[in-house]
Amino acid sequence: MYLNNENLAYIAKSDKEIYLIPKMANRHGLIAGATGTGKTITLKVLAETFSDMGTPVFLADVKGDLTSMIKAGDKEKIQERLDKFGITDFECKPYPSRFWDVYGKKGHNVRTTISEMGPDLISRLLELTEAQEGVMNVVFKVADDRGLLLIDLKDLKSMVKYVSDNSKELQTTYGNVSPQSAGAIQRNLLKLEQAGGDIFFGEPNLDIFDWIQCNENGKGYINILECSELVLSPLLYSTFLLWMLSELYENLPEVGDLDKPKMIFFFDEAHLLFDDAPKALVDKVEQVVRLIRSKGVGVYFISQKPDDIPEDVLAQLGNRIQHALRAYTPKEQKAIKAAAESFRVNPAFDTKTVIQELGVGEALVSFLDENGVPTIVEQAKILPPQSAMSVASDEDVQAAILSSPFNAKYSAAVDRESAYEILSGEAQAAEEAKAQEEAAKAEAKAQAEVAKAQAEAAKAQAQAAKAQAKAEAEAAKAQAQAKKQKTVQEELVDKAIKTATSQIGREIGKSISRGILGGMKLF
Length: 523
Hints:
Layout: E1 2-3, E2 8-13, E3 17-20, E4 29-32, H1 39-52, E5 57-61, H2 75-85, E6 97-101, E7 108-109, H3 114-125, H4 130-146, H5 153-165, H6 167-174, H7 179-200, E8 222-226, H8 234-251, E9 263-267, H9 270-274, H10 279-291, E10 297-303, H11 311-314, E11 319-322, H12 330-341, H13 351-357, E12 362-366, E13 378-382, H14 394-403, H15 406-410, H16 419-518
Parallel strand pairs: 4-10, 4-11, 5-8, 5-9, 6-7, 6-8, 9-10
Antiparallel strand pairs: 1-2, 2-3, 2-13, 11-12, 12-13
Helix pairs in contact: 3-4, 3-8, 4-5, 4-7, 5-7, 5-16, 7-8, 8-10, 12-13
């Protein structure tokens, strides 16, 4: 509950009113406690207070129970509690809220581009080796040199393939790219895609300054990110948070200490943020928590136990609200002792004992004073929220989404020409050119084979003609020889006939002569 005239945030009451000083709110904070002890209500009270002081808020709604901030609370149900606080001017009211969802189902789409993430963050997110990170840097450099936009995952996958396929040509300019490293990157990108990275990476990409806005009455907008589905994909959740924290740190200017924060971030169920998280994310959270205070941003973690938060982060959380903890095991008893020892001692009670005896809506509270020193811990009751405690209906949430000016800006995805389309076009053109070249080669080969066949046919025809001519010549020769032989034979016959005739004539002549001579008698 924000007291405008005094510039104080009235959060809880023990035997005195307990205030959070706005200019100390960017020193970050912690809300811890067992399930069912009132952490979510405390979160809502703080978020409403920041909104009333004109500070925009971001909430990661893991359980889906923060949508009720768009509805006014029921004063009758909390009147008894208000009487205990002695509050007479309590106003139940809705708060200006906007809903966001990486999956685009229960809020405006949250997207960013591969280029916005950059090679370093993506490499750290995917936990690449040094050699693989080197290849990732080559991929981004080649894309930049060629003017190829890296917008979504298919762009990055196409570029990795392109660099791997053309590694020999690129080697002299960009260095070695091993197929093993490229293959490992592709496998990690496939995991990210299956986790929902194909939804998160794209356009229009979110402008982080759209979260840092106030309404016409000067109330800070409460940006509620639907996370009930997102936390089931730890890799995608880590991707989103890594990008968001990097965007904040890189884009917000240094402002030093302000009278009130520029923005406050709440991360509910913070153990989900750190359990099995990539080291890159944990490192980035630690860096942001240490340094982002000077940019006017406060970060508040909500978890069951303080030791859910890494020590380096926990040490930076100056404003603390500790709800009840239960101790059933030695480990839990140790956690309670550690939680108790993190507070500045109040001699009026034993902190370790009180932590285990706190009722619902009660907490141990210690905020930073004007000098940045933690105050003595107080056992106190948390104020009720001014918005509703029940969950808003899906119809109310959808109405809020549709009435938001960001519905038109972020609802429809834009898939403009980028690396994937250009490289696919080049690959298709290369395939077509190759196909045409192969077709031309095939046609030339076919023509050569036809010409060869024709030449062979002509050759065979010539050989046949030659053989035929030879046969005819040989036939003519044989015929001539036969004719010549016949002539010789005829001549021989004629000669023989003549000889025989001559011989016969002679014989006849002789016979006649003998006959004549023989018939004559000598006297």
